[in-house]
Amino acid sequence: MTTAAEATAKEAIRDFLSQHTRRTWEDEQDIFAQGAVSSLFAMQLVVFLEKTFQVVIGGADLQLDNFRTVRSMSTLVSRLQESAGGGDRG
What we know:
Elements: H1 4-21, H2 39-53, H3 70-87
């Protein structure tokens, strides 16, 4: 089930992708398999996601599979936000 936060994240990610690729994207479309973006663009996605959603992406999360689709990116963001929120309680 998609939460309001995930829906907002998906919308922001789709907008970013559309601005940079001049295409519209469905949640499950593989942006790399479609040939619309390069692996270098994945780093731009990392920076965008970190700045937009106030998360830190590193280590095992820096896998291409986490950036292939709008859904995979929104899932990553949601998971990182949840773990950051839960970890800050003292």
